[in-house]
Write a structure and sequence with these properties.
The protein contains 9 helices and 11 strands. It is of the alpha/beta class. The strands form 2 sheets. It has an 8-stranded parallel barrel with strand order 1-2-3-5-8-9-10-11, surrounded by 6 helices. The protein has a two-stranded antiparallel sheet with strand order 6-7. The mean pLDDT is about 95.
Length: about 270
C-alpha cells in the first residue's frame, strides 16, 4: 500500500517553513506523496471549511517540489469547474516539468455554491464544465498545434500553441462518491475518495475493479488522523489493504506544526510493511 500525507497549507499551521519542513519530513520518512486541497474564497460564517486561510494548491506544491526530489505531488482535490482550463493546464504542465514528472491531479466538481457564485461560474453546469475542462487540458497537453471545440467553457481554440507540454502524462484521479464521479473516474486514471470506512471499502473496490481491473488504475482514499486516533491506525490501514485499496492519504487535523509532524511520523510507522 502507498501512503500520502496532506501538507500544512491550511489554517494556523500554514507557513513557508512549515510546508517545507513537512515535505522534507515526508520524503525522509518514505511517504509516497504529499497533498494539498483547494478553496479560493469562502463565506464568512460557513461551518466548513474551518479556516479561510487556504494557500494556493499549485504554488504550495511548487514550493514543496523545490524542497524534495522523489516524493510525488498531489491535489486532493482541485475544483476544476471553478477554473478556466487553459491557464490551469499551463500551471500544471509547468509544475510537472519543474518536478520532473511527479504530479498527480486529483480533481472534483466542488460543492460550495457560494464559491462558484463569487467566481462567476454557473454551479449547475459544473459537471459538464468538469468533463469539458479535462478534455481541453488533455488536448493542450498532447497536441501542438491544438484545436478544440468548446461548448460549455468560453474558449475559441483553433490551431493554437501552448508550451511547455508535460514531460510525462499527468495522471488524473477523480474525487467523489456519486455515480457521476465514479463513472468519471472509471474513464480516467484513478479514484480518490473520502468518507469510505474499512467496512465499505470492499464493495467500492469491487465496483471499480469490475470495469477497471488493471493495477494502473489507482484506487485511493483520504482519511483523517490525529494524535488520539493514530494508535489504532495500523488495523485500519490493514483493513483497507485487505480490501484492495492501493493508496491512503491522511490529513492530520492537529493545529500546531510539532504535533502535525509527530502525527505524520506515527502514521507512517503504522503503515510499515502493508
Amino acid at each position: 500500500m502507498q501512503l500520502g500525507i496532506h501538507l500544512p497549507h491550511i489554517g494556523r499551521k500554514a507557513s513557508p517553513d512549515n510546508i517545507r519542513r513537512a515535505a522534507i519530513q515526508a520524503e525522509a520518512l518514505g511517504f509516497d506523496d504529499v497533498w494539498v486541497s483547494e478553496h479560493i474564497i469562502v463565506p464568512k460564517d460557513a461551518p466548513y471549511p474551518p479556516s479561510a486561510n487556504f494557500w494556493d494548491p499549485v504554488l504550495t506544491l511548487t514550493w514543496a517540489a523545490a524542497a524534495t526530489t522523489r516524493v510525488r505531488l498531489g491535489t486532493s482535490v482541485l475544483v476544476l469547474p471553478m477554473r478556466h482550463p487553459l491557464p490551469l493546464a499551463k500551471e500544471l504542465a509547468t509544475l510537472q516539468n519543474l518536478s520532473n514528472g511527479r504530479l498527480i491531479l486529483g480533481a472534483g466538481v466542488g460543492w460550495l455554491e457560494a464559491e462558484f457564485d463569487a467566481l462567476g461560474v454557473p454551479f449547475k453546469e459544473r459537471g459538464r464544465r468538469m468533463d469539458e475542462g479535462i478534455a481541453m487540458m488533455r488536448a493542450v497537453w498532447s497536441q501542438d498545434p491544438v484545436s478544440f471545440d468548446a461548448k460549455w467553457i468560453p474558449a475559441k481554440i483553433d490551431a493554437m500553441r501552448s508550451q511547455p507540454q508535460p514531460v510525462s502524462p499527468i495522471p488524473i484521479w477523480i474525487g467523489g462518491s456519486s455515480d457521476a464521479a465514479i463513472n468519471r473516474a472509471l474513464r480516467l486514471d484513478g479514484w480518490h475518495g473520502s468518507r469510505v470506512t474499512p467496512e465499505q471499502a470492499p464493495a467500492m473496490v469491487k465496483r471499480l475493479r469490475a470495469e477497471r481491473p488493471e493495477p494502473a488504475f489507482t484506487i485511493s482514499i483520504r482519511i483523517g488522523c490525529n494524535a488520539s486516533t493514530v494508535g489504532g491506525m495500523r488495523d485500519t490501514l490493514r483493513a483497507y489493504a485487505d480490501a484492495g485499496i492501493q493508496h491512503v492519504m491522511t490529513a492530520p487535523d492537529d493545529r500546531d506544526i510539532e504535533t502535525y509532524l509527530a502525527t505524520a511520523e506515527a502514521f507512517r510507522r503504522a503503515g510499515e510493511g502493508l
